[in-house]
Amino acid sequence: KDVLVRADHVKVYFKGKDKKSGTVRAVDDVSFDIFKGETFGVVGESGCGKSTLGRTLIRLINPTDGHVYLDGEDISSLRGNDLKQMRKKAQIIFQDPSACLNPRRTIRQILMEPFEIHHLTGKIDVNARIEELLHLVGLDTYHLSRYPHEMSGGQKQRIGIARALALNPQIIICDEAVSALDVSVQAQVLNLLQDLKKRLGLTYFFISHNLNVVYQVSDRVGVMYLGKMVEIATYDQLYEKRYHPYTEALLSAIPQVDASEQKERIHLSGEVPSPSNPPSGCRFHTRCPKACERCSCDTPELREIEPGHFVACHLYD
Ligand code: SF4
Ligand code: MG
User: Fold this and answer.
1) How far apart are CA 244 and CA 311, in angstroms?
2) Which domains does the chain have, with CATH numbers?
3) pLDDT (tens place) for every residue of the chain, 317 residues total
């Protein structure tokens, strides 16, 4: 399989809000690949670093350490025009479309922005392209003269998607892209994303706190806990077997269609510890039902224990 994005020992540290909180290790030594054409889903509780990781993969955040490769190019230290050119290839869709659509601009003006930023307005037929984009996301041209507040949440998210598609990106980070929408609208937007992926050959890094959604759309899934990737596997592999005790607990919460396949719900005790002061050894040891002595001092490495199935847990050393 072709690798589109490679994260190589990526760390993102930043200063906490006050002196007491010290350095927040939002992403702490994460390495993995995203293949061309796949949906790589990321799950984990809020604060596990999934949004920070997503932004770092497209250089909206600079990694503190490590490298990110996009299509073979190290983008970790790109500057100026090189960085700007890279941005055409990698886009992001956020949870709240209203927050990123200027309320004083019409939809036409909003969709014009990417072309203006990249000085393409004189070079291509932008109006034709904008109409094409609108049709791609299932909206009609009469929406062009509207303002964001005249549209529904689902329509606004479609505009967000259209804008992300404007410059023919290769990868889109979907950060809670459907989380703010009603369930029925959620399904429509998910279908649209799936459809666009097929038609345009896109790759998605799909972040959601909603396991059901991630599980539905992903080819592969990465599970994050406190800044670490603790398990990576294909959907089918995870369906068969989850190795990491945290994955097991997380996925036990997903309702099964077939009641006989319903796993007993595993409730985790305790709070998620702070990413500025993570537990020693395996970060999950303070909540892990299977922890042993070694877990509190040795940090388990993410290792491939079956072809394509990676786990960071001492149970499988
Ligand atoms: Fe649990 Fe130990 Fe495995 Fe961590 S390494 S998940 S604490 S068994
Ligand atoms: Mg988030």
Assistant:
1) 6
2) 3-89+169-316 (3.40.50.300), 101-168 (no CATH)
3) 899 999 999 999 998 777 677 899 999 999 999 999 999 999 998 889 999 999 999 999 999 999 999 999 999 989 999 999 999 999 999 988 888 899 999 999 999 999 999 999 888 999 999 999 999 999 999 999 999 999 999 999 999 999 999 999 999 999 999 988 998 999 999 999 999 999 999 999 999 988 889 988 999 999 999 999 999 999 999 988 999 999 999 888 777 767 777 777 888 888 888 888 899 999 999 999 999 999 999 999 999 999 999 999 999 98
With a 6 A CB cut-off, is 314 part of the ligand 1 pocket?
A: yes
The DSSP code sequence of 73-121 is EE-TT--HHHHHHHHTTEEEE-S-HHHHS-TTS-HHHHHHHHHHHTT-T
Cβ–ligand 1 contact at 284 (below 6 Å): yes
Pocket of ligand 1 contains residue 282 by CB under 6 Å = yes
Backbone angles phi and psi of 85, in degrees to 5: -65, -40
